[in-house]
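User: Quick sanity check before I run a bigger batch. Here is a single chain. Can you write out its predicted 3D structure?
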Amino acid sequence: MKNLSKKKRLLFTSILLVALVFVNLSSGIIPIVYDDSSNKVGNENDHKDPINKIGDFGAAGYSDSQEGSGADIDILLHQSIVDYENGDPIHEIADFDSIANRSFEIDSPSDTSFNSSYTEIKVEDIYAPNKTLNLELGTTGNPTLSTFYWAFSFEVYSECVLENFSICFSETSGGTIDGKVEIRLYNADDTGTQIEPLSNTNLITISQLINDQDSRVWYNFTDLYVPLDPSTTDENTFFIVFWDNSDPGPVTEFHTEPDSGGDNSIVHRKSGTNPWVKQDTDISSTVKVGLNNNKPTPEDIVMEINGTKVSNGIENSGTWTNTSALPSSNSQLNFTLDAGWWDVECNITRIQVNYTKTDLFGITDFTLIKNAANATWQCNVSDVIDSFDSKFENFYMNFTIPATWSVEGVYNGTSDKKTVDIYGPIINGYQNITVLEAGNGTNWFLNATSNNLLQSIKSKVGIDETYQVHYLDDVDLQANFSEVINDGEVNLTIYNDETKFSNYTQVNTSTSDSIILFPRWNISDTGNLDYGKFIMQAFWSNDTAAAFWEQPLTVLANTELLLISPSNNSFYKSPFSEFNITVFFNDTGKPEAITTDDVKFQNQSIVGDLTPNGTTGYYNLTINPADFGYGLNTIKINASKTYYDNGTIYYKFHKIINSTISSDNSSSFEITRGDTIFYAFNYTTDPDEDPIQGAEIKLILDEGTFDWTPEEIGDPGSYRIKLNSTYVTAQSGAYDFIFNISAPGNETQVISLQITVLKPNTKVDLETDISDFQIPIGFNITLKFNFT
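Assistant: Done. Predicted structure follows.
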């Protein structure tokens, strides 16, 4: 059998103190009284240290459920015995001086592991008569008072009154003068070495004449009724002190016997202010004490059972209760009644003892299916229950379970379901539940549920929550709980959905939060990770709770799709022939070419499929421009593979109509600066010679600073280029011009022109006729030039 730990035993003891059970005779129901002073440690939401790590988080350790063990549960069995005779005495106590006469017993279970946990005894009809204490009745000794103070003691154990006392005196002087004695009543003082009178606590003052010639006369001091409270003195003791206060002449004697040791009376004497000195003698005296009521309450006479007090009830009755285990002998509990008074009589009218067995415990196991609302718990009693005894009654079973559990039922065997009759208060996170229909059985167990405390697993890339991540991503992972968890380990494992092998495992032990964070997952550092579907699983448990959650995750490859050839915006004219568009599909994460047959391509037009071209990762799409319309054509190519990023490129090409340029003008010109030239041409299809309208004429090369203007003239497809040379610099060489002639869907044609710009012709006009003459030195001739 499994031993309970010290912590568990202390906890269980606390629960026993909490559940004090007594029988309600009128209804037959066993109420359970709970005391909130239970000293269990913790609170309702506390979770204890895990005792089992659940699940294999290594290779191929995937499971869609988790099973494990929790803490042992305290289990208490109860049975009780009630001895009751409808109010008639079951034990009459008449001779209190005899221990045997004030002792009684009741049956206890033969299974000694049952201990008494609650005992209740009803005491009624209490009677306590007044008591005369004969401290010493012999009068043999006759010491004189002389100059000494004398004192003798008596004891009381309950509050009472001193009704009277007697002392035996003599007067032996032979004269005619009476003696005189002073008498006082003092409390006692325990000095540490002896009990002696406490002189400053005088309770009575008596001056008594002792008649001349009296011999051994008992002097009675009556009707005193002095209250005596044993709590105000030491050792429940009081002293009567007396001394001689006679005039000269009388000789006053008192009487004694040697100390017999049986009356508990202490005798002292002293002289003047000297200390009290104990004497080995007894003073001839009696003391009578009485109660205010001879039918006292138990507390009036300090009544006890087995050393603890009986509490007051109605009038002269009371009840004794005990919540600790009492020793048993021969399957019986023994009780002894005692009181702080003499000759007490009473009746024992009812005895109830509840017996509890505390050496049982429940072995707890749980099962939790992924993402289920609750974990299911089963608590199996650690041993066969066969110790309920037929001579007892009120069989019940008590489980101390976490307050977070919801009980489904308690079973004695798989088919005998018992209902929970009593739910106790929640104390320090635990709750007692009680089944009143308990009995012997070989397979007792409790079924319960607790909330699955995990609510989600989150995957984040940057600030975005996503469950489709890429191989080159750094992923932040967290497990979200419905409440703060204070202990235990949170395991997070990511499994390949197909192979069920783990690719990532982390354990977070720094709990005490409702959001548990894990180290960032750099996927590319994982190693030879296959792309595809994965499963994230988080699991946590402690002694009393469990949490298990699963979240799918997809890991995609990072890819790129590249156009290798031909270049975009190529032009194609008749005669048309097939050509290949070549692309390269690449995994940029690992990196490696993507080559498997799983690659799929889609394109905008139905022009065929891309096929591997023999070089790893390269694919060709064969097209013929003849299959496309004239003008700009765009082919969208999508490359896809399961669990790879899609790649998309756009290939653009121009399909054009053959064209030609015809002109009656020469392409070479020689002009004088300032002249304007015109170059006329026809732009038509070839060979059909259909005019091409709306052509764009664009100057590609201009070596001069001609002003030029394109013009559409005459018939459709007829154009001319006008060039003005006013601001052109004349030079000996020709200027080169190149024009592109284009129209959408038509072949672009080129016109090349060469233009030579000459200087203008000049002549000199003389304003004055000059004949032959001699030009003297210093003579000026002025000429005026006119450019024509």
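The chain is about 0% helix and 50% strand.

User: Great, the batch can go ahead then.
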